[in-house]
Automatic annotation (TrEMBL):
SMART domains: NADH-G_4Fe-4S_3. This is NADH dehydrogenase subunit G. The keyword Metal-binding applies. Its EC number is 1.2.1.2. InterPro entries: 2Fe-2S_ferredoxin-like_sf, 2Fe-2S_ferredoxin-type, 4Fe4S_Fe-S-bd, 4Fe4S_Fe_S_CS, NADH_UbQ_OxRdtase_Gsu_4Fe4S-bd, PSI_iron-sulfur_center. Residues 76-115 form the 4Fe-4S His(Cys)3-ligated-type domain. It comes from the Bacteria. It comes from Campylobacter geochelonis. Keywords: 4Fe-4S, Iron, Iron-sulfur, Metal-binding, Oxidoreductase. PANTHER family: HYDROGENASE SUBUNIT, PHOTOSYSTEM I IRON-SULFUR CENTER-RELATED. Gene3D superfamilies: 3.10.20.740, 3.30.70.20. Residues 134-167, 197-227 form the 4Fe-4S ferredoxin-type domain. CDD domains: fer2 (cd00207).
Length: 818
């Protein structure tokens, strides 16, 4: 731990940390526009200049040294900063009255803060028409070319979808270089030369539409198209919540205000975030209006449901993991009280996986989290279609590759060009879909230490000997002729040539005996390339995805994952497949559907209680308060953004004799593994230094692990015909995200170019997909980033369940003649 002094305050830090980050953590304000926490500095704004040990440096890229003394402001710095803000205002449209950013605009704030009260510079303006990029609107006239949007897209999201392009404006007068403040001249000169544009050949924005660039834009240049001209920022009330669509449950704010002057009912106008520390995916950012417009209390249906439980006619509750922990607890109490079966197949598969994992890991929970991905320098992702299944884990992986110079292996049968483009230090290993056990066996074989004897023997037998070509350095003797001057017998100087022998190093190719892992071979993994990726790596993380949880080999995979956590240096993160799969898995004892009536909570049943089409209205997750248990192993709170007028699950529970008045009364009573903390005592924010104050972190319990030998046999069938994968398109997670107005779409078969060619198909063709007796007609959509094809499950008008028993299926596909 090092110490530096900033404005007289002693601040602890790590040597090499950026001064700006240390200042922020210690509550010391340094003006800065272009720097984003966790990204590489771009040095576009220069506002963050400070004096460090009497030298002018930019605090966003100057690294702390023990004993350093930093002054953040003095007369000269203040005047440079003022001049920079003056140049940012040149030709900036005076439309603050209608600008979407007005009230939270960093240009406004810094202009005011620096005391800019006149404009002394000018240059001819250039015409810069506004552009619509789908969900995003770009107004170049407002852009101050801080490059935050480019940086966040490259360093966090990984799409690399934006770049600077020439502005085509006049050059600055040469004399200004000598007459105006140096830093302001440099900022203006750069700003006057550039604009922002999509990084694609045809000028369209080709990306995953996460909207993070709109969040980081300090001015009104990039905004969500659906927010544009809808509200002034200061009219909006921020409701802190958690992303309800995916298991990152990232911190979001629902920005709400009344719908209109006549209609005072609150409406969500947008979702905002703390972009420095938590990135949002497309559904979190744009999928906010997934509630019903009107909900009502139908007491007759309520009584019928209550009677169904009391009389014993209802025997099953079918639900999904888009519920809060508190609701899961209510369901679990109802189960015990009325001897019900709780049915949630996806959470059950996850629960089973965790149980087997825990036994062999010797700990109740996995030991990885967001930080262990972000801070790792070697990461393996296996069994996850990462950008689709868990985009936020993908952001952290990309961030580690970019900022920590980490390396990674991405194991997946579907090749993803965007993931491959994250870094040249990412090895994309596209293996056959029936292989999964082999990945974990390889990890144990390569990285395992002190393994149980039975496993070690098995892994040692999985090598084959073969010759391998290597480059070796050899010392060889070479003779050469060297000219030398000597004196002859007369004392005269003459030149002679003499043979000299010397040793030189030469590189030669040589075949040597080597051992190759049969697992690596089966997986098409280049072991030499891996060796290079592993050089000087110390912090290892393994990410396990839904493919493994739903595999025919799930039980074996879970045990092997437990052994990886126990016997290797990898931290392990097992991604919960849906928003609150982890919470449900921890709270509910899940079973099979038995005879008797089924109460469907957001699922099909004899009587349906749902925020979608239902017999009885239920609140959507943006209308509820409670907590989720996220993939980061945190219990995070979510608050209701909207008024709700129907019944909640707790109303049914109260009619059935459960004791708590409010749903959140269950928060301190969630059961084993959870803390007894009241809902109102849970915080939900990141502080200035990025410390996570969101709810609380679960604590893992350690116990004696199982070392018993188990059978390791790959039960996955060999797939033939055409193989399709079960996955949603990027930014779509479920029937709930698909209900949001910005995300609504109809299911298609999404396929890569090679897949279309191999099956003689084109984009927009209609195909019949067949499996046994099942048939499904869908149109095809090209996904140019993918090799392979996937069928989605977000569209509840289409039932694809019969096509899959795991995430892969063999089908036949024909072009429809109709
Ligand atoms: S669009 Fe916004 S974030 Fe991007 S460079 Fe311009 S001002 Fe900066
Ligand atoms: S929406 Fe997301 S992926 Fe697209 S350009 Fe913006 S930051 Fe990049
Ligand atoms: S924040 Fe350091 S140069 Fe912009």
């Amino acid at each position: 731990m090092a110490k530096i002094t900033i404005n007289g305050k002693i601040c602890e830090c790590n040597e090499g940390e950026y001064i700006l980050a240390i200042a922020r953590r210690n509550g010391i304000f340094i003006p800065a526009i272009c720097y984003l926490s966790g990204c590489s500095p771009t040095l576009a704004c220069r506002l963050c200049m400070v004096e460090a040990d009497d030298k002018r440096v930019y605090s966003c890229n100057a690294k702390a040294k023990d004993g350093m003394v930093v002054i953040t402001d003095n007369e000269q710095i203040a005047s440079e900063r003022k001049a920079i803000m003056q140049t940012y205002c040149i030709n900036h449209p005076l439309e603050c009255g209608v600008c979407d950013q007005s009230g939270e605009c960093e240009l406004q704030n810094f202009v005011y803060h620096m005391g800019v009260d006149e404009q002394i510079y000018s240059i001819k303006d250039t015409h810069k028409p506004a552009q619509d990029w789908g969900l995003i609107h770009y107004d170049p006239a407002l852009c101050i070319v801080c490059e935050r949007c480019i940086t966040v897209c490259k360093d966090k999201i990984g799409d690399n979808a934006l770049k600077t392009v020439p502005r085509g404006g006049d050059a600055l007068e040469k004399s200004l270089k000598d007459t105006m403040p140096k830093e302001a001249y440099a900022v203006w000169n750069k700003f006057q030369k550039n604009l922002i544009a999509p990084n694609s050949a045809d000028g369209s924005l080709d990306c995953s539409d996460c909207g993070e660039c709109t969040a980081v834009c300090p001015v009104g240049a990039l905004v969500g198209s659906r927010f544009q001209y809808r509200s002034n920022a200061w009219e909006l009330k921020k409701i802190s919540a958690s992303n309800p669509h995916s298991s990152d449950c990232e911190l979001i704010y629902y920005d709400v205000k009344p719908t209109s002057i006549e209609n005072r009912k609150h409406k969500i106008y947008r979702v905002s975030s703390d972009y420095d520390f938590g990135e949002l995916n497309k559904a979190a950012r744009f999928g906010y209006d997934f509630n019903k417009d009107e909900s009502r209390k139908d007491r007759i249906v309520l009584e019928r449901i209550v009677d169904g439980f009391k009389s014993g006619r209802i025997k099953n509750i079918k639900f999904n993991s888009f519920i809060t922990n508190e609701e899961a607890r209510i369901l679990s109490i109802l189960k015990d009280k009325f001897e019900l079966n709780l049915i949630n197949d996806e959470a059950k598969a996850y629960q089973n996986f965790l149980k087997e994992f825990s036994k062999f890991a010797g700990s109740s929970l996995y030991n990885g989290d967001f930080d262990s991905v972000k801070e790792a320098d070697f990461i393996i992702s296996a069994g996850s279609f990462l950008r689709h299944d868990a985009p936020n884990v993908g952001y952290k992986l990309n961030n580690a590759l970019k900022i920590n110079k980490a390396s990674a292996i991405y194991f997946h049968p579907l090749k993803d060009a965007v993931v491959e483009g994250y870094s040249k230090n990412l090895l994309s290993c596209n293996h056959s879909p029936n292989l999964d056990i082999e990945i974990l066996l390889f990890i144990l074989q390569k990285f395992g230490k002190n393994l149980p004897k039975w496993l070690e023997d098995r892994l040692l037998s999985a090598f084959e000997n073969a010759k391998k070509e290597v480059e070796v350095s050899k010392k060889v003797k070479q003779t050469s002729l060297v000219k030398k001057k000597i004196k002859d017998e007369n004392g005269e100087e003459k030149e002679i040539e003499e043979e000299v022998e010397k040793e030189v190093i030469v590189k030669e190719k040589e075949l040597i005996d080597a051992k190759f892992s049969t697992y690596a071979k089966a997986l098409n993994l280049d072991e030499d390339a891996l060796e290079k990726l592993l050089e000087k790596k110390e912090k290892f993380t393994l990410v396990i995805g839904e493919d493994f949880i739903t595999s025919k080999n799930a039980s074996t995979l879970a045990k092997l994952t437990g052994l990886v956590q126990r016997y290797t240096q990898f931290k392990v993160l097992i991604i919960p497949p849906r928003t609150n799969s982890l919470g449900v898995a921890m709270i509910c004892e899940l079973g099979e559907e038995q005879s008797g009536k089924t109460f469907g909570y957001n699922e099909k049943g004899d009587v349906v209680f749902s925020s979608l089409k239902a017999d009885l209205d239920a609140p959507a997750l943006n209308e509820q308060e409670g907590t989720f248990t996220n993939l980061d192993l945190r219990v995070v709170p979510t608050h209701p953004a909207l008024d709700y007028h129907g019944f909640e699950l707790n109303d049914i529970a109260k009619c059935l004799g459960l004791e708590f008045e409010n749903t959140i009364d269950y928060t301190p009573n969630l059961g084993e593994g959870f803390k007894k903390i009241k809902f109102d005592d849970l915080e939900n924010f990141y502080d200035n230094g990025g410390v996570n104050h969101r709810g609380y972190k679960l604590e893992s319990k350690s116990f004696e692990a199982c070392d018993d030998e188990f059978e390791i046999e790959n039960l996955n069938p060999n797939l033939d015909e055409v193989i399709i994968y079960k996955a949603n398109p990027i930014g779509q997670f479920s029937k709930f995200s698909n209900r949001a107005s910005a995300l609504m779409q109809t299911a298609k078969l999404y396929a890569g170019k090679e897949f279309l060619e191999a099956n003689s198909l084109k984009d927009s063709d209609v195909v019949i997909i067949k499996k046994d007796e099942l048939e499904l007609a869908l149109s095809v959509e090209l996904d140019k980033d993918i090799q392979g094809a996937y069928l989605p499950f977000f569209d509840d008008k289409i039932d694809i369940s019969g096509f899959f028993t795991s995430r892969y299926s063999s089908v036949t596909i024909q072009r429809s003649q109709a």
